[in-house]
Amino acid sequence: MTAARIRIEPWTDADLALLRRVNTPGMKKHVGGPETEEQLLVRHQRYLDFVPSGLGCMFRIVLAGEAEPVGTVGYGTRTWHGERVHEMGWNVLPDYQGRGIAVAAARAAVAEARATARLRYLHAFPSVDNPASNTVCRRAGFTLVGETDFEFPAGRWMRSHDWRVDLTASV
After folding, report:
1. Do the beta carbons of residue 10 and residue 51 sit within 8 Å?
2. What are the residues whose beta carbons fall under 8 Å from the beta carbon of 51, sequence distance 6 or more?
3. In the chain, at which residue ranges do the beta strands (DSSP E only) sit?
């Protein structure tokens, strides 16, 4: 999948339906399982607030020539080892997985972060048991920092890889 075949579009109120579509046991098995409707509504509002608050940006992933989104990608701000960083995540609907869509979307979101983010580092923390997301990180240009214990969602610890992009580095 080439970058020209996908586009990322800013999150809107209409994307709550997409958030519900990715909230399945299969799609959430590496991040604590599906969320309740109440948790989804809180997450959706947080995504809507990312840009106005300056804390990140969330996008829907759309294939060229299609109107329906096929996934999500974005980043938000968190404290990691005493430093403010951006944390990136993505979801691609099952019918579209394995086509390079997540890699292209992650690259596009990293480019957006380079252009607009105010922090130096962007991290991704896929579970060590999630080979697909770790491959996305490698192919999207992240550098593996190492393994770590990572809390996501709140209250659930998992063993993760810490992947990082220096947003100030020249490309």
Report:
1. yes
2. 10, 57
3. 6-10, 56-63, 69-80, 83-92, 121-124, 143-151, 157-166
